[in-house]
Amino acid sequence: MSGTIQSRRSSDKKDFPWWLVVAAAIAVALGIAILVSPIYGQVFSTVSQGIWITVWVSLLAFFLASAFGLLLAVMSLSEHVAIRQTARFYVEIVRGIPLLVLLFYIAFVGAPAVVALWNFIAQPLQAAGIGEQLQVRDFSLLWRAIIALMLAYAAFLAEIFRAGIQAVDKGQIEAAKALGLKRFQRFRLIVMPQAIRTILPPYGNDFISMVKDSSLVSVLGVVDVTQMGKVYASGSFRFFETYSVVAYVYLILTISLSLALRWLERRLNRTRRN
């Protein structure tokens, strides 16, 4: 027993997060530079105006992607072949398209198509004087970006959910059936509480990836952190200072999320052991 405890202590010493110490030192140094240097302070003041958009896009797109991804996962486990194949088709096709290409496709092909379809369906109402014809410019670029991120990440999250659900022991599901629990009750009370432990690590990693990939919305002119940095750098030609601060902001967001997720994983593991 004592040998096991000693081996764990030695392992903990070897796994001491020196990378975090170095990252924290760099973060502190850049933070001091932002406070002291007028140039870095001005850059941070400009870039920070886009933090709310970055957080909003990431949270909303990931929430919608989680809901849609869970639906796709349930569809892929359906007993009906057509439903399974439909989910499989979506997941494989969307996962094979680069995110930037999908973003452009939704923004400049999908959005005009949706507007045209809506105007076609609403023609009788418009003829009766109810409502006005929708224009493509009425479809916000911010929402186009959110929808594109949602559709892309739903395909990846569907596979995570499916793997987590299938990892649950089938014997427990059969026991729940024997107790008379309905399908939704089995899913809510038996399957998901156990699947969440398997799902959480890759699910959290995808959320961190979403925060980083949200920077792609800047190509549509959405005023997130990256776009604000791009605008400032193109006007001041201070590319080093600007993109150092942009990277600093993203690192603060992603490393904080990563540490929070690791703490949550350890908490769940302790709960499972107890």
Q: Which percent bin holds the helix content?
A: over 70%
- Let me know the largest β-sheet: none
Query: Would you tell me the structural class of the helices and strands?
Result: mainly alpha
CATH architectural designation:
Orthogonal Bundle
Shape: flat
SSE string, helices as H and strands as E: HHHHHHHHHHHH
| Quaternary form | single chain
Instruction: Supply the CATH superfamily name.
Output: MetI-like
**Beta-strand content:** under 5%
Question: Uncertain segments of ≥5 residues (pLDDT<50)?
Answer: none
Whole-angstrom Rg: 24 Å
What is CATH's topology name? MetI-like fold
Distinct helical segment count:
12
> What do the pLDDT scores average to?
85
> Distance between termini?
18 Å
Q: In words, what does this structure look like?
A:
The protein is mostly helical. The protein has a single domain, classed as Orthogonal Bundle (MetI-like fold), CATH 1.10.3720. It contains 12 helices and no strands. It has helices at residues 2-14, 18-36, 38-47, 51-76, 81-95, 99-121, 123-127, 141-166, 170-178, 183-213, 225-236, 239-273. Helix 2 (18-36) packs across helix 3 and helix 3 packs across helix 12 (239-273). The chain starts with a helix and ends with a helix.
